[in-house]
Amino acid sequence: MKRLYLALFTLSLIWGMSFLFIKLLVVDLGVWGVVFWRCAFGAGTLLVMLIVQRKLNTLRKLPLIPILFIALLNNALPWALIAVSETTISSSLASVVNATTPIWTILIGFTIFGSQMKKMQWIGVGVGFFGILVLLELNLFQLFHDNLLGVGTMLGATICYGFGAHLSRRYLQNIPITVISFSTLAMAGVISGLMMAIIQPSGFMAVGSTDIILSLIGLGVFGSGFAYLLYYYMVKEGSAEFASLVTYLVPITAMIWGSLLLGEKITPHMLFGLILIFSGVYLSSYKTKASKHKVAKKIAV
């Protein structure tokens, strides 16, 4: 258990700092530059792992169309939206809004993929959305005035993650995790590279300073490469439920990093909104976790 908790804490620090790296990099690289170089560094890391594990042959028969859409919805588009978001709001606030991802995943499953929702899940969704309003200090006018771009694009990223999660479960269920991670990152790199070539070709040459390279190592190698290994280590050695605890820790570590390194303010309404979002995520996923536990118990018996 000590190793599992160490992995959990380390992953929360890495993913929490990812918001800070995006905030720093988007100024020099632009939106699609951040996405492309993040994919390039992450995919390169995972390619080395595949070579070491001697699994390159598993890349030959991959379902390219599902991987294309999952790469778009799980990597390229949400990462671009997060980068846009952090041009107008703090990395701390972006990380808190990102914590609504499980709620959107449940709603998308119910409305599009035929998943069932119980009373407790509906309550959790309501609490989570109230938490978003609290983040905006219960001021809807502010949403449509000051924070529309920042909060709106961040919510768009979480919705993309929800779609990507369901498509991954449906079409990539039997493919090794490292292969999925590499193939989707590589495909997202192609997509973002094309977008950067059209919109901001100078982004290809912007990686020159030591600060940018170090930030990309943190965001790509660790945040998009090694982070996958830590996450799926927790799933394998602990449980999916244990690994999902990182959802609760990342906004906290992101706020700490943002406060210490960028001087971002942590306001009372952000903390209260975060507590409400956490409560909503817990309530909306509680029944699902309970049913999964029952199924696992039956299989074990």
In words, what does this structure look like?
The protein is mainly alpha-helical and about 300 residues long. It has one domain. Helices cover about 80% and strands about 0% of the residues. It is built from 13 helices and no strands. Helix 3 (about 65-85) packs antiparallel against helix 8 and helix 6 (about 120-135) packs antiparallel against helix 13 (about 270-300). The longest helix is centred in the last third of the chain and has 33 residues, at about 270-300. The model is unreliable at about 290-300 (pLDDT under 50).
Computed Rg: 19 Å
Low confidence ranges: 288-301
Shape: globular
Helical residue percent band: over 70%
Query: How many domain regions?
Result: 1
- Separate helix tally: 13
Mean pLDDT rating: 82
Helix and strand sequence? HHHHHHHHHHHHH
Structural class: mainly alpha
Question: What's the total count of β strands?
Answer: 0
Proportion of residues in β-strands: under 5%
Report the major sheet: none
What distance lies between the first and last C-alpha atoms, to the nearest angstrom? 24 Å
Offer a few descriptive terms:
301 residues; globular; disordered C terminus
How would you briefly describe this protein structure?
80% of the residues lie in helices and 0% in strands. The chain has 301 residues and is mostly helical. It is globular.
Task: Write the SSE topology.
Blueprint: H1 2-29, H2 31-53, H3 64-85, H4 91-98, H5 101-111, H6 119-135, H7 140-143, H8 148-171, H9 177-199, H10 210-237, H11 240-243, H12 246-262, H13 268-300
